[in-house]
Write a sequence for this structure.
């Protein structure tokens, strides 16, 4: 079968692939301690489900405007004002099939062949491939754990070229869980000042915060608003990953171009899902606090368990539901006579011989690290930590 050239530029999502493998093992009755899932293990709150059910029963089953129903776009503007002090009008909002879809539309609308997009490492696995699919070129800037995974403004200045069209920011971050401080955001804002690139702020983990305060870069540099696009969605805060609903808010010409792409590809996000999202944005938020408290307890458990392993160092994440332990201290050690060498090898051995599913750091641009999601029960965390202890004990 002859396929398009662009397919050769991208690779399968490693997290989706690993999750599928861990789930297939579990389906065969293998007891896998899974730390791969990028979704809260809580159910969607009942009132949100009910709103979608009610809309279905009322026959709300037809096409809607591509950009989303007006009342949902208004509710998104109200949310952005209330939570983020950002002022947008409904015609600056495009509702899509998940934040992933919003990001895809942005890159498709923005990039010409060879245009550059700055991505900070470690990064969410989909950013580089989405840029490549749009014909763009990802330009990576390394950030370091010692600096809380905040970028060096000087490195951003050096990376900016006449071909730079955008920089992607993601705080709290997948995979590191790091949250940008005010000072870090001020540094980034100062670095991009002399350039007209777009700032893509992926705020999807905004509500999953354990320390400090959530800030969008526009909160420290209001002058960036005309070239800022905010991406957010229902998946993480409302435990609605399977519903597929995200949105982007930004400059009108960009949003209109993205809408045109959506007009000619998916059309509107599913009608009743939009009603569920509307209820979520207008309804009570106490369950978010309950979920965050549970995640906070699990964070303590997993961070202390990982730090107790010889050769493993785990920074405490300020947000999201991932830990990103540094396992470079294990790479020189051997398992069954062969040196481990890479984080990919560690994750392979863990799944095959110890029934623990974790994601290696390399696909996130950070070899020598592993990503573990703690969006799983304390029981699984305890079990997984026990198996990790067995793994470390088996090394020579
Ligand atoms: C950083 C980041 N951005 C965006 C998304 C996409 O979320 P959605 O489910 O809304 O497509 C994810 C999902 O894992 C993510 O981790």
């Amino acid at each position: 079968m002859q396929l398009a050239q662009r397919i050769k530029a991208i690779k399968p999502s490693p997290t989706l692939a690993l999750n599928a493998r861990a789930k297939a093992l579990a389906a065969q009755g293998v007891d896998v301690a899974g730390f791969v899932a990028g979704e809260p293990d809580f159910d969607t709150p009942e009132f949100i489900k009910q709103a979608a059910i009610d809309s279905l029963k009322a026959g709300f089953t037809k096409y809607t405007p591509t950009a989303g129903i007006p009342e949902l776009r208004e509710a998104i503007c109200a949310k952005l004002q209330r939570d983020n002090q950002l002022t947008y009008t409904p015609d600056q909002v495009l509702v899509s099939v998940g934040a992933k879809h919003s990001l895809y539309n942005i890159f498709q609308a923005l990039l010409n062949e060879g245009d550059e997009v700055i991505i900070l490492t470690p990064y969410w696995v989909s950013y580089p491939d989405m840029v490549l699919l749009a014909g763009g070129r990802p330009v990576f800037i390394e950030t370091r754990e010692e600096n809380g995974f905040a970028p060096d403004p000087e490195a951003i200045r050096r990376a900016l070229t006449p071909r730079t069209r955008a920089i992607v920011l993601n705080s709290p971050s997948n995979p590191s869980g790091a949250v940008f401080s005010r000072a870090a955001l001020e540094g980034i804002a100062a670095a991009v000042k002399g350039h007209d690139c777009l700032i893509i702020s992926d705020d999807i983990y905004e509500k999953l915060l354990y320390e400090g305060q959530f800030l969008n870069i526009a909160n420290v540099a209001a002058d960036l608003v005309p070239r800022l696009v905010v991406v957010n969605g229902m998946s993480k805060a409302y435990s609605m990953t399977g519903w597929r609903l995200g949105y982007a808010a930004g400059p009108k010409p960009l949003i209109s171009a993205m809408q045109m792409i959506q007009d000619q590809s998916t059309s509107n996000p599913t009608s009743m899902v939009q009603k569920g999202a509307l209820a979520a944005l207008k309804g009570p938020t106490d369950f978010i606090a309950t979920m965050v408290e549970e995640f906070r307890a699990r964070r303590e458990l997993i961070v202390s368990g990982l730090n107790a392993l010889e050769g493993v160092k785990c920074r405490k994440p300020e947000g999201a539901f991932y830990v990103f332990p540094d396992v470079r201290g294990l790479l020189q050690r051997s398992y069954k006579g062969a040196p481990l060498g890479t984080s990919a090898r560690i994750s392979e051995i863990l799944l095959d011989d110890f029934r623990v599913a974790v994601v290696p750091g390399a696909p996130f641009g950070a070899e020598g690290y592993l990503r573990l999601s703690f969006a799983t029960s304390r029981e699984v965390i305890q079990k997984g930590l026990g198996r990790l202890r067995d793994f470390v004990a088996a090394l020579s």
Summary: The pocket of pyridoxal-5'-phosphate is lined by residues 38, 98-100, 124, 170, 174, 202, 204, 233, 235, 241, 246 (CB under 6 Å). The two ends are 47 Å apart (CA to CA).
